[in-house]
């Protein structure tokens, strides 16, 4: 039995909660995955997986094995990257998760990290806040870009690296097409924006919770006529339809090439939401992770992030 491979299969089963999908993700057959898990049970002399007609869950002993599996696989990655890296050139994959509204910033970060360290391969995933936190806790991602205010909602201890404050804009079609790019218009009150037909994120998204609370603080309720969990759908709904949308600066910056649009800062109240990179505090960072943490605290990067997330007056 290859212990590391069997542990990977176990972690995959936890992530997918389905034998066939876990096997597919590991590029093996379902019988091969099942046999490896049974061999793991024989090795530790405990039942790890609760089985029925389909995957049911893990036994208490299985949960202990799963937690150890995550840490062993993480330490294996740390060691492998250390052996392959040189003093000034880290090597290896870096799993980065980001809430959808922060994906443009995560993309910029990954591009700058890879340009600085060509042997580092960032993998950027768009995840809901809940999924982001679960994957960070399970060590299936290294770094998470999300809402700082949610850090205390999980049992795992996290370290935060503050990045920027999320500002909010009403995105709408402009009265005329601008000569160069999207323009920043005059501020608009949340109360006035509530009267407009809106495309907003779906209610389970944390950004929607922030937006709804902002409208409530202004004594009103938004008129959402389209809902989506896709930031691309939000932008294209404004471009192609007769709706407006509420977007943070990071998304507005990402669609600045649409000359027919304008973005109005939302005020009364002015809402600022802290966004941070977050990492598991209790595990040893890999060489790629060390490079990422260094860049996340670099002044030049933070200024770049602020330029594309704040009030966007330089657009």
From TrEMBL:
Pfam families: HTH_1, LysR_substrate
Entry annotated with the keyword DNA-binding: yes
Keyword DNA-binding annotated: yes
SUPFAM superfamilies per UniProt: Periplasmic binding protein-like II, Winged helix' DNA-binding domain
Protein family per UniProt: Belongs to the LysR transcriptional regulatory family.
Keywords: DNA-binding, Transcription, Transcription regulation
All residue ranges annotated as the HTH lysR-type domain in the record: 1-59
Protein name in UniProt: LysR family transcriptional regulator
Source organism: Rhodoferax mekongensis
Lineage of the species this protein comes from: Bacteria, Pseudomonadati, Pseudomonadota, Betaproteobacteria, Burkholderiales
């Amino acid at each position: 039995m290859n212990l590391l491979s069997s542990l990977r299969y176990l972690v995959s089963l936890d992530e997918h909660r389905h034998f066939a999908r876990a096997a597919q993700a590991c590029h093996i057959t379902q019988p091969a995955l099942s046999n490896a898990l049974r061999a793991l049970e024989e090795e530790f002399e405990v039942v790890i997986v609760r089985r029925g007609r389909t995957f049911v869950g893990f036994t208490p002993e299985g949960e202990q094995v799963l937690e150890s599996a995550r840490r062993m696989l993480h330490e294996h990655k740390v060691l492998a990257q250390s052996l392959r890296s040189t003093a000034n050139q880290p090597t290896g994959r870096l799993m980065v998760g980001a809430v959808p509204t922060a994906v443009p910033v995560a993309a910029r970060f990954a591009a700058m990290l890879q340009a600085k360290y060509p042997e580092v391969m960032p993998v950027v995933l768009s995840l809901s806040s809940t999924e982001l936190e679960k994957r960070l806790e399970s060590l299936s991602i290294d770094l998470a870009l999300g809402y700082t205010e949610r850090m205390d909602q999980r049992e795992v201890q996290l370290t935060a690296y503050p990045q920027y404050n999320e500002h909010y804009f009403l995105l709408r079609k402009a009265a005329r097409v601008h000569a160069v790019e999207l323009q920043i218009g005059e501020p608009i009150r949340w109360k006035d924006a509530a009267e407009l037909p809106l495309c907003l994120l779906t209610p389970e998204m944390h950004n929607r919770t922030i937006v709804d609370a902002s409208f409530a603080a202004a004594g009103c309720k938004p008129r959402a006529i389209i809902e989506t969990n896709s930031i691309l759908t939000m932008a294209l709904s404004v471009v192609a339809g007769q709706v407006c949308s509420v977007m943070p600066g990071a998304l507005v910056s990402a669609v600045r090439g649409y000359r027919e649009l304008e973005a109005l800062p939302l005020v009364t109240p002015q809402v600022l939401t802290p966004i941070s990179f977050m990492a598991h505090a209790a595990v040893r960072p890999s060489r790629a992770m060390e490079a990422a943490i260094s860049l996340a605290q670099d002044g030049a990067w933070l200024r770049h992030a602020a330029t594309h997330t704040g009030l966007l007056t330089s657009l």
